[in-house]
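Hi everyone,

Forwarding the result from last night's run.
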Amino acid sequence: MLRQYELVERVKDYDPDADEALINRAYVFSVQKHGSQKRASGDPYFSHPIEVAGLMTDLKMDVETIITALLHDTVEDTLTTIEEIERMFGPKVAEMVDGVTKLSKIEAQTENERAAENLRKFLLAMSNDLRVLLVKLADRLHNMRTLHFISSADKRKRIARETMDIFAPLAERVGMYEYMREMQMLAFRELEPEAYSTIVGRLDQIKAHGENQVETIAESLKTELGTHGLVADVSGREKHPYSIWRKMAERHVSFEQMTDIIAFRVLVDSIDDCYAALGHIHRKWKMIPGRFKDYISTPKRNGYRSLHTAIIHGRSMRVEIQIRTHDMHRQSEFGLAAHWAYKQGSSRPDGQAGWIRDLIEILDTAQDADELLEHTRMAMYQDRIFAFTPKGALHQLPKGATAVDFAYAVHTNLGNQAVGVLVNGRNVPLRTALSNGDIVEILKSEGQEPQTSWLGFVTTGKARAAIRRYVRDKEREETAAMGRVIFDEIAGRLPVKIGKKALKQALERLEMEDETDLMVAIGTNQITDHDLMDALVPGSSSDLVAQREFPRQDRAISIRGLTPGVAFQLAECCHPVPGDRIVGLRRQGEHIEVHTIDCLNLVSGVDADWIDLSWESDSEGATARIRAILYNRPGTLADMAGIFSHHKANIVNLKLTNRDQPFHTYESDLEVHDVGHLMQIIMALRASESVARADRI
């Protein structure tokens, strides 16, 4: 543990003008407040914030950050208040301490809810001052270094999983690769102990059999560059165990098949020297195709710059090489912290960096804890590609990102209105995965809306959050519209006309905020007809029952203008289409399920309220299912497809369900206008020489 004078000396070494008295006061304050508290290791608790402050001095952080590190646990773990910290150390330190402070555990909540709330508060604080993130990362790193002292295996795994899912990706996103690598290694050791020990054992064997291998390759690289007049620092190391394990999983190979477990770093003086060194290395040794990446011309989103390549050295020895300047190396090790060092002054980075704005947008749209954690983890993971707009604007996305993800990365409204995409001038589906260097032009229409099917292929948290928010808002809007129609029908059964005053009083009796909440509750059957009547006119439902004059629904409720799958679901068992006589099943907390009146599932009895529904005369468009038995001879399937095409019915799904010698049975899902359109298709199938039988199912 750092002594008081040692901490001060560390800060004074890089910042001679630092406020020594303020650091001393914070050190003493932390020791006094934590008092006799102990950590799981048995060490005094105050050793933890002091070690975190020491990590901040390694990054050459300013005095405010050092003091925040010293005080970051005092509010949660002692009787100290934010007001006390503000009075003694100023408002900025108080704000940062409040941002870093962990939330007290609320045992009534689930683990995900606690993690989500902690993450929510942390991200909001981080958006105001990124130094909060730096202290939090150091706090987590030191906790991971002492994780083995915690006796509960479940608790250790929970902390390790949170570190792997949240904090290591955050460290990568701000370019702090040393923090990221150590966090991943420590978490990996806890989560996969057998894999960790196996890989470490194999690495030790490699070292034992080839002690000078790394030094030999490094020296050959340095000599080759020196012969061309380039002065370079060359160092090599084995990749850390988690990196090797992840690549084994990605490539589906064993450790013995891994040929690039050694990486070398070449540091030169200038960007020109970087490219010169790359050329000399490629001329001397064979380059492995597909492994070259230029992060100097297109830096990573966190500012990381370097040239990456892989070569075959000596006798089939594959090695990875990173080439960068000394300044780039400092940036790659310390990332964001390099910009926050005491000497940077007014050139400190904008606290509202683009990726943080994305995270804050996700905070605003997440519906629950699971969704927040899912979207945030997606937004922070690290493997990325680069794609361009037609005007040359660069956007970075995760590997596997689609055109829809790109559209939302440009602007939420563009994503919502996307109808098509041109990738490198070619028209491709919206679900197309993008590649590095693609030029992407999104085609939009004001009449377009996000599709729920997009959730099946988007990869970014921002896109997923925006789609879910839009679908959720539309679902609420249409469910409320359906509820309004049902409300009018129920209110019509009452002996008096319902006005605004009665509706307002009903909301108070039902303890609801507004009319929309009431209509949504009616549309999803969260309130019974009797309860609604009694709320509108107290005692009315019991009076009607006593008089045996309880009128039922006397007119069909229109579903015109509502979207299937949003306010209601078309039943899969009978596939109703416009023109069919339909009824709705209203279950608590669910969408209304629409069936044809002759659906066999209704005969068996269902636990739900029935409501009479109608399509309206101009309703059109639904998916019908047809079963057709074709003769087993060449061309019959083409004949059936030709009939569908002639009648302008789009095939949504086609499945061969049965095959015997003379016949093949197919089930086809078709988009049709109405029941008349469907019957035309069935009659045409029955008239065909290729079709033995055709029926609607």
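Residues 103-110, 340-352, 545-551 have pLDDT under 50 and may be disordered.

Cheers,
N.
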